[in-house]
Amino acid sequence: MDATTLGALLALVGVLSGSVVAYLGKRGENATTRMNSEIDQIQEERDGLRQRLAERDARVAELLKQQGDDYVLIARLRAQVITLGGDPP
Length: 89
Description:
mainly alpha; 1 helix
């Protein structure tokens, strides 16, 4: 085997190995891009759920305050019924 043939074979091996490395690198890049996209979607969903949870908690607090106000009003009305000589239920 002369030097030209040996050089050509080494060049071929180099080109093929470079192609394999480039192919595998691109696959890795695509996988990383997909993973980042999935993580972004999960974070957006999480943020939306946190906002909905905060809104729900605010509504629950509002309803609990209203319930407390209703209990005070009921107690006041019962006291007024008793003052007027009635028998509250």
